[in-house]
Specification:
The complex is a heterodimer of chains A (about 230) and B (about 300). Chain A has seven helices and ten strands. With about 230 residues, chain A is of the alpha/beta class. A six-stranded mixed β-sheet of chain A has the order 6-7-8-3-9-10, sandwiched between helices. In chain A, helix 3 packs across helix 4 and helix 5 packs parallel to helix 6. Chain A is globular. With about 300 residues, chain B is of the alpha+beta class. Chain B has ten helices and four strands, in the order ααβαβααβαβαααα. Chain B folds into two domains: about 180 residues, no CATH class; about 110 residues, Alpha-Beta Plaits (2-Layer Sandwich). Chain B has a four-stranded antiparallel β-sheet with strand order 2-3-1-4. Classes of the chains: A alpha/beta (about 230), B alpha+beta (about 300). At the A-B interface, helix 2 and helix 3 of A face helix 1, helix 8 and helix 9 of B. The structure holds adenosine-5'-triphosphate (ATP) and magnesium ion. Magnesium ion binds next to helix 1 of chain A.
Chain lengths: ~230, ~300
Amino acid sequence: MIRFDHVSKQYKNSPRPALDDVDLTINQGEFVFLVGSSGSGKSSMLRLMVKEEKPTTGTVTVNDVNVAKLRNRKVPAFRRKLGIVFQDFRLLPNKTVFENVAFGMEVIGKSRREIRARVPEVLELVGLEGKEKRLPSELSGGEQQRVAVARAFVNNPSLLIADEPTGNLDPSTSVGIMKLLDRINRTGTTIIMATHDVAIVDQMRKRIIQLDSGHIVRDQERGIYGDAGH
Amino acid sequence: MRISFVARELGSGLKRNFTMTLALVVSVAVSLSLVGAALLLGAQVDRMKGYWYEKVEVSIFLCGPNSTAFNCKSDVTPQERKEVYEGLKSLGSTVQSIFYESSDMAYARFKEQFKGSAIVDNVGPDALPQSFRVKLDNPDNFTLVDAALAATPGVESIQDQRKLLSRFFQILNGLQTFALAVASAMLLVTVLLVMNTVRVAAFARRRETSIMRAVGASNMSIRLPFILEALTAAVFGAGLASLGVLSIKKYFIDARLAPDYTFIAFVTWSEVIAIIPWLFLIGVLTTVLSSSVSLRRYLRG
Ligand SMILES: Nc1ncnc2c1ncn2[C@@H]1O[C@H](COP(=O)(O)OP(=O)(O)OP(=O)(O)O)[C@@H](O)[C@H]1O
Ligand SMILES: [Mg+2]
C-alpha cells in the first residue's frame, strides 16, 4: 500500500514545487496510470516512492514504511520489495538476456540454484523463452523492455513502478508490454505506471491519476485519458 | 553475493579497464619499489651499525720507521710500548680490552682483506704500523684515552673509528630519507591515480550501479567490485615491487657488492624477506582507502 500525506516536493533550483500538497492512497494489487503533461510531476512522484528523492514536506508511506525516515542502511532491503522499470530499459549491454535478468538476483545474493529455477520462469512469463543467450543489441526495443520488466519482476516485488516504459516503443509493441504488465498485476503485484500514451490508457480502463503542475486534478477508477478535466 | 559472481564481475571489470588497471599496477609497483629500497637501506644501516659499533675500537698507532709525527723519534721501543700499555691499564674499567697487533699481524689482516687486489703487492709489512686496539666500555670515552695517551712518546696517532663511521652513516641515513621522500611522493601519485581510476570506472559503469541500486543491492556490494579491482592492481604492484627488492638483494648486493666489499656486513635474506609483507600492507591500505574515499564521493545517489 502507498500513501501520500500532504506531500510537497520543491527542488533546490526550481521556481515552483514539482509536487504541491499531494494526498493519495493506492491499495495493494491496484493498477494505476499516472498521467499529465510534461513537467507535471509524474517522475518526481515515482522517485519519492523509491526514495530516490525525499519529500520537502509531508510523508510518503510505502509498504508501511515511512520512506523519509528510512535509514540509508535499510534502503537496499526496502528496494528489494520494489521492481523498477525505466524508459531507457537500462540493460547491461555485455550481458546476455539470461544474465541481465539473473543480475537482479545475483546482486542481492540469491543462490545459483534459485537463479537457475527462477530466471527461466520469468523469461517465459515475459515471452522471451529461447532468447536467453542473446545480447541486448540483438533484441528489438520491445524485447529489451521485456527483459527489463523480467528483471524488475524476478524477485517477486509487491510493487512494480514503471516510468514511461513504452515511451520508446511503437504502439503495437507497447500493447504487448501492457499485456505483460496486466498479467503481472493479476499475480497480485501493485503496478504504478507513468505515461503519455493516450491509446494505452484508454484501452486498459484502469485507475487514472492526473497531475497538473504538481497538483492531482483527477483521480478516476476505470478512466480514459480524454476526460482530462476539461 | 556469491564468490563466483564477484569473481566473474571482477574479471570483466579488469578487462574493460585494462589500460587504467595497468597504469595502476605500474604506479603501485614503482612507488612500492622505492618504499622497498628505502626499507632495504634502513635495514642495511641498522645491520652495519650493529656490526661495527660492536667492533668499534680506538686504535693507538705506534711509531714506525717512516713515522713523521712529532711524538716519534724513531721506531717505538719496547720500553715505550710497555708504557703505553701501562697507560691504558691505568684507565681502569673504561678500557674493556686491549689487543696488540704487530706489523706482521696487521699485514696478514690487510692481505686477507684486499685479497686479489693489486694493492697487496705494493705494500710490505713495514708500511703497516703496530698498534693497540682498545675496546671501551662506552665509545664516548674516547676523549679520556686521547687525553691520557696523546703526548706519550712512541704514540704516532690515536684514531676513533666511530668518528669515521658516523660520517658514513650520516650519508646512508641521508640516502634513506631521500628514498623515503621520493617514495612518499610516488605514493601520493598512486593515491591520486587510484582515486581517478575509480572515478572514471564509476562513471563508465553508472548504468550498472544505477541498476544495482534499483534492485536493492547493498552499498557494500555496489562498491566492492571497484575496491576489488584497485586491490587486485595493488597486489600485482606489490608483487612486482617485491620481486624488485629480491632482485636488488640477489643481483646487486650478493652478486656485485658482496664479493668486492667483504668487510661490510650486508642485509641478510631474512631481513630482505621481512620487508615484503610491509610492501603488501602499504599497497593494500593505500589503494583500499583511496578507492573507498573516491567511491564515497563519486558513487552517490
Ligand atoms: N532534479 C531536479 N532538479 C530540479 N528540478 C527538477 C528536478 N527534477 C525535476 N524537476 C522539475 O520538477 C518538475 C516536475 O518534473 P518531473 O520530472 O516530475 O515531470 P514529469 O511529469 O515526469 O515530466 P515528463 O513527462 O516530461 O517526464 C519539472 O518542472 C522539472 O523541471
Ligand atoms: Mg518523467
